[in-house]
Amino acid sequence: MKKRAASDPKKRKALIVVHTGDGKGKSTAAYGLVLRALGNKMKVFVMQFMKGQWKAGERKMFDQFDGLEVDALGDGFTWDTENPEQDKATARKAWEIIKPKLLSDEYQMIVLDEINYILSYGFLPEDEVLDTLRQKPETLHVVCTGRNAPDSLIALADLVTEMKCVKHPFKDQKIPAQKGIEF
Ligand code: ATP
Ligand code: MG
Questions:
Q1: Third-level CATH fold of 13-173
Q2: Average pLDDT of the segment spanning 125-151
């Protein structure tokens, strides 16, 4: 049997985590980490790039936690690939909120939900986002979710999981989104 690599249990390293792939569970796994961090009295910030002001089940619960700040892009906003300039402006607006938080010492976990999607469409410049991630404090975990994570982000990350779709109720049976599972 192979011996496990020796590791120092006291060594702390904040991680860059990526959840990507075409299967379900990228965002919900990130929210699982949020719960875990909050249980450890860590301060957490979540930016939901795709959800707008509409409150899915998790958002209703999030309101009840101290130590958790959540932001989402404005009302009625939809990403419109027909109008990339507008999408870039919206992504920029979100990024101006996120960037100072990434560089501050205020949080121990930041979740950027669906940022991979934003990067893969070029709505935010990859270099700028990655440079900021490189400068983040050593005490801050960052979780990036979404399909099509760019290779450069995967290379920078410490923990990358690809969700693989084996079966999906909508794809395979046209079963619509179910409460408690999708929202
Ligand atoms: P969740 O937020 O439930 O963890 P996710 O973050 O992994 O899902 P997204 O790419 O954000 O998935 O997609 C959001 C929606 O698309 C969800 O309602 C999800 O169920 C649905 N979805 C995910 N994978 C598939 C698939 N392979 N086929 C069809 N729909 C899918
Ligand atoms: Mg998601």
A1: Rossmann fold (3.40.50)
A2: 97
Tell me the pLDDT tens digit for each residue of 15-40. Answer: 999 999 999 999 999 999 999 999 99
Cα–ligand 2 centroid distance for 43 (angstroms)? 22
pTM score, two decimals?
A: 0.91
Instruction: Please report which ligand is nearest the Cα atom of 166.
Output: 1
Ligand 1 center to residue 5 CA distance, Å?
35
- In three-state secondary structure terms, 46 is strand
Q: Strand (E) positions, 16-156?
A: 16-21, 44-48, 68-72, 109-113, 141-145
| DSSP helix/strand/coil, 16 | strand
The residues spanned by each domain of the chain are 13-173
Distance CA 148, CA 85 (A): 21
Q: In the numeric block, which tokens belong to residue 119?
A: 């990067």
Q: Give the whole-angstrom CA distance, residue 105 versus residue 100.
A: 10
